[in-house]
Specification:
Helix 2 packs across helix 3, helix 6 packs parallel to helix 7 and helix 7 packs parallel to helix 8. Helix content is 37%, strand content 17%. The two termini are 24 Å apart. It is of the alpha/beta class. The structure holds SN-glycerol-1-phosphate.
């Protein structure tokens, strides 16, 4: 699978992509099969696995279970270097470029190399930008970094471009899992018009309307986790045609 190449092809064909985020810390393995059934019958195009923490070291077994149940590409979205497994197809190789905590800018990445040197995972360099989502989120707590205020659009654009110019292949605008305020349309529009690499947006997206707004503003791939976790019936509104 060439996941990044396929993302570029999809964008060229004006397809909008949807990633379902599964957090190994929250998942009940016995229930995963019915959940993935819903994912398979929906417009979802990718599955992301990860979260800020993985207390029970479940990433490996969760990805293994998911891979047996779907043909969708599975991308890792790790909270730190210990959450990486060869069972997935790709790794979002995240650098938290909105923060100034060297641990999440480069240290975790360095620590992951002994494993990644031998991996078959497709590694996708991703500039990860934390934006104020109205509540203190797990990313903020775990990374000990401050999100960028939604009013500071210039700083958000400059951070995204600094990511692109330093070679990231994706930019991820993150309001944080369970955010009460999603990334505004204005931010998405402005970042998108400045950027030439694909744009991911996530955090706090709960309704089909939210999803449509974020797509309209210019997001290429939207990530939703909490809304599906809380109410799997949400998939009924996003059924494949
Ligand atoms: C979090 O962007 C993702 O990292 C998804 O957020 O759980 O709020 O959908 P939600």
């Amino acid at each position: 699978m060439q996941i990044y190449k396929n993302i570029l092809i999809d964008i060229k064909q004006r397809k909008k992509l949807l990633g379902v985020l599964i957090d190994p810390d929250k998942v009940i393995l016995e229930e995963i099969s019915s959940f993935i059934d819903l994912v398979n019958n929906s417009i979802a195009t990718h599955i992301l696995v990860g979260g800020s923490t993985d207390h029970d070291r479940k990433t490996d077994s969760v990805v293994k279970a998911i891979k047996k149940l779907t043909k969708l590409p599975v991308m890792l979205f790790p909270g730190d270097h210990s959450h990486v497994t060869n069972e997935a197809d790709a790794l979002l190789f995240l650098s938290l470029i909105s923060g100034r905590n060297s641990d999440f800018l480069i240290e975790q990445q360095v620590q992951s190399i002994p494993f990644l040197k031998k991996t078959s995972l497709e590694i996708i360099p991703t500039g990860y930008i934390l934006i104020d989502g109205g509540v203190e989120t797990a990313v903020q707590r775990v990374s000990n970094t401050k999100p960028i205020c939604q009013d500071n659009i210039e700083l958000i654009i400059n951070t995204a471009l600094a990511g692109e110019y330093s070679g990231k292949k994706l930019i991820y605008l993150e309001a944080g899992s369970g955010a009460s305020k999603i990334v505004s349309s204005e931010i998405i529009e402005r970042v998108k018009e400045n950027l030439s690499i694909p744009l991911i947006v996530g955090g706090g997206i709960r309704t089909k309307k939210d999803l449509e707004h974020v797509y309209e503003a210019g997001a290429d791939l939207v990530v939703i986790g909490t809304a599906f976790e809380k109410d799997p019936h949400f998939f009924n509104q996003l059924k494949k045609e």
